[in-house]
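Hello again,

I reread your note about wanting to compare the complex against the isolated chains. To keep things tidy I'm splitting this into two emails, and this first one only covers the full assembly. Below are the input lines as submitted, including protein chains and any nucleic acid or small-molecule components. They are followed by the predicted structure of everything together. The single-chain runs will come separately.
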Amino acid sequence: MTVTVASSPRPLSGWGRTAPTTALVSRPLDASSVLASMHDHSGGVIARGLGRSYGDAAQCSGGLTIDTAGLGHIGALNEVAGTIEVGGGVSLHNLMRRLIPAGWFVAVTPGTRYVTVGGAIAADVHGKNHHRDGSFARHVVEMTIVTPSGVVTVAPDRDPELFWATAGGMGLTGVVVSAVLRLIPVETSWIQVDNQRFTRLEDLMSTMEETDCRYHYSVAWLDCFGGRNGDHRSVLTRGDHAASGAIPHRLRGRSREMPGDPRMRVPHPVPARLVNRLSVRALNEAWFRTSLESRGSLRPLAGFFHPLDGVARWNLLYGPQGFVQYQFAVPAERTDVIEDAVHSIASSGAPSFLAVLKRFGPGTPGPLSFSQEGWTLALDFPLGPPDLPALLDRLDDAVAIAGGRVYLAKDSRLRPELLPVMYPRLGDMSRVRRRVDPEGVLASDLSRRLGIL
Amino acid sequence: MKDAFGHPQSVVVLGGTSDIARELVALLMEDRGRSVVLAGRDRMALEQAAEDLRHSVARVRTVTFDANVLDDVDETVMRCFEAAAEAVDLVVVAVGELGSQAVDETDPDRVARMMTVNLTWPAAALSVVADQLRRQGHGRIVVLSSVAGFRIRRSNFVYGAAKAGLDGFAVGLSEALRGTGVTLHIVRPGFVRTKMTAGRSPAPFAVDASRVASDIMRGLARGEVVIWSPGLLGWVFTAFRFLPGAVWRRLPG
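Full-complex prediction:
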């Protein structure tokens, strides 16, 4: 059964709101109707979850987008195996609300709970624990995919080629209708956090290299405006799940609290573009000053993992032109690329509100899966500075030469000729696509822009 | 597909030998261009324009047509879209002919031709382009109008009247396209020093084709529906609208 949301094309864009295009939208409720709607359309088909990829990955101009909200069932929790079966359209928000009171948690969570399980697999998302646990797809026991040639269930040992092409494959192998996820047990919904401040990038990076292994979660925030002597201030935040014994008496009643809905909502239309050079500078200053050095302080899980989820539609703050996210990964020894990127952004005058640095553990066999062992830096820029496109093109070159890559779930502007350099196994992806989608039904604005066959 | 900054990968130009269009395409293709289709009447001139692009753009195709013939407008536009071989991100409509006012105004065949080439053919083509882009779910259209059609003058009213008609059609079409993912941008240049105006004495605010092209790029980046070139002409011509006829008649240029 399929619920058609709109009979006429609807404008859709990514979370960065930069390149809207129109497409029909359908909302199938089961695998067979996903398959049926694929066969009804010649203008291209792509799945769309909660629309949190930043660029054009979940839109298909002139074609059909399959809204996966109808695939939202949450199956029974298998407490023996520590797994759960869920629909591809289930949000991590809803899943966590179900898991936490029962004493379980997802093995990997990205910086927002408002992504679907299907989207998390398609982007092979990573979290603050990548250095020890890898990316999301590492914890998928099996999944059922609707490809244009049929419905198949795959696992790392059952058609591994299709399994790994789907992990990080940006929806280009089919629609994930359900998955079995491996979970981790947690005693509480609190994280015990250590905060450290640095005034030199070099010190931050060596601390991360030496001691990240002691923590379950680790991430650093950088001030891209630069501090004294042209160096960059940073705050390193690391933590572990708090055991029930670590919860003080006054919090005992809230030891397994579910994450709540957003408390604030950005009005639409926004009265003015609130993210600008001045406000970004002020916020960075405030963040650094209020992030005091601390050890073992307790923070609720939602605030630790998903600080922006408390404000609905925060992307509107960047104004009507939207913004670009840029995230890249480079091998561990190429710290120079990270340093050069931070310096060139600081001197370019394009303000980056969020600059987040993290160490990656080993990647997955997925040919388009982003994470690779080394460093990753995530940045975001409001559209507007005229030199921004050229700045990002230069960063692309440096990243590609260093053997690194950019994250396709955030991309909206990469030069197509760099894709096979950054993802040398692109050919494997195309081979799987020819097998499961011989007529080339699956396509997105991203796949067309980058020429992913 | 366009990228986050609006750089197109695929462009179709109706009137591909126009100096303004050639300057514009060179700028549009600088960053992410991979396909250009140039359509026009003069095969030799089209090939020359195509050759200039080939060192920077992977795929350049040409299509020939005559804007004085209305039987195959539909077919001509479709041939351009097919030649692009991918989604078309931007269509430039630069078809037109300045004519010669003194000769044209007393010759009914010349008047009819000026209306066909500057108004009827481009408007008919726009209806097909708009439909194609709407189906495609995205795209931008750039229509070259002229200040000559904004307030019509004695000295070039045949050309001016045709451009006024096209400008009005384009303004209406841009409204009709709201919410479809397709946008339309109307360019109103003043006197442009090109091969079309060669031999005429430049009016005040005269600019080169390259300046018009860079003004269009800036207007597109800002999402402006009407792009004046130079920008100051927007104010000047808005004021001109309210000039009494006796004064308007005496203005130079």
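For quick reference: The longest strand of chain A covers residues 2-12.

B.
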